[in-house]
């Protein structure tokens, strides 16, 4: 079967709530979500993402009942990497005063599988669960197996922020500026950090290897956007293969970025 193009990158679970402001505050302050007027997410839009809507009346707020033979009710289920992270989430929520409607439990015949359930102010059950995630023979490390941030060194922070806002198509938010660096929090849960610390007067390198790779929808359209609209230097022309096409561009600070499209 031919590989389908990636057309859907995320989804939102819609919850009707009785008091929108109260729910937004709970998800933000207690559950640690990034809450906007459009969504509430933790871990990016590909993590746990919800759309909270003001219910037209009380009858529209309908948390799911437990399934037959169970006492636990689920409206949203989030899968967690391993039990270490699961326990950290549980401890964080308890510390912040979350309503725990289902204490942690291990189902020995299902992986084993461990889960707990948090309840929001309207009674919706938000479950968190997963397998332990550790495999025999894999070294134990305090480092989490994920890329948290990519760092690009820049000389003019304001100019770089505006440029990467256009490259990524994301909003520049004042709260994401931290002195000499700026953060872009991306949809897949990672972030791009632009850092200008001690960069004044540092020469721009003439050559560099790619520092990161960006995905795109339409390699030719993206090439024209980067070259013609943004005026950036193309340092490696489009290379085409059956399953992927890519090219490299360079920003004014000498950072080389790969852009690719899967077919």
From TrEMBL:
What Gene3D superfamilies does the database record attribute to this sequence? 2,3-Dihydroxybiphenyl 1,2-Dioxygenase, domain 1
> What residue stretch is flagged as signal peptide?
none
Q: Which parts of the chain span the membrane according to its record? A: none
Q: What PROSITE patterns does the entry give?
A: VOC
Q: Which top-level group of life is the source organism from?
A: Bacteria
Q: Which residues form the VOC domain?
A: 7-131, 146-262
User: Which InterPro entries does the entry link to?
Assistant: Glyas_Bleomycin-R_OHBP_Dase, Glyas_Fos-R_dOase_dom, GlyoxalaseI/FosfomycinResist, VOC_core
What name appears for this protein in its UniProt entry? VOC domain-containing protein
Source organism? Gordoniibacillus kamchatkensis
């Amino acid at each position: 079967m031919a590989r389908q193009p990636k057309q859907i990158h995320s989804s939102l679970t819609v919850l009707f709530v009785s008091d929108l402001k109260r729910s937004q505050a709970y998800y933000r302050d207690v559950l640690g979500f990034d809450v906007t007027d459009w969504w509430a997410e933790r871990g990016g839009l590909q993590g746990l993402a919800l759309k909270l809507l003001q219910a037209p009346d009380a009858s529209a707020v309908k948390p799911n009942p437990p399934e037959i033979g169970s006492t636990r009710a689920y409206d949203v289920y989030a899968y967690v990497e391993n039990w270490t992270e699961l326990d950290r989430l549980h401890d964080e929520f308890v510390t912040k005063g979350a309503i725990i409607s289902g204490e942690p439990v291990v189902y020995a015949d299902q992986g084993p599988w461990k889960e707990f359930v948090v309840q929001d102010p309207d009674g919706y059950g938000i479950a968190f669960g997963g397998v332990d995630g550790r495999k025999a023979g894999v070294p134990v490390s305090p480092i989490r197996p994920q890329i948290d941030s990519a760092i690009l060194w820049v000389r003019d922070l304001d100019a770089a922020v505006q440029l990467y806002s256009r490259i990524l198509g994301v909003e520049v938010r004042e709260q994401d500026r931290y002195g000499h660096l700026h953060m872009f929090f991306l949809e897949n849960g990672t972030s791009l950090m632009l850092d200008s610390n001690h960069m004044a007067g540092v020469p721009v390198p003439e050559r560099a290897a790619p520092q990161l790779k960006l995905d795109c929808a339409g390699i030719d359209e993206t090439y024209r956007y980067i070259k013609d609209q943004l005026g950036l230097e193309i340092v490696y022309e489009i290379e085409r293969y059956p399953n992927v096409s890519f090219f490299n561009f360079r920003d004014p600070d000498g950072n080389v970025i790969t852009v690719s499209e899967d077919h």
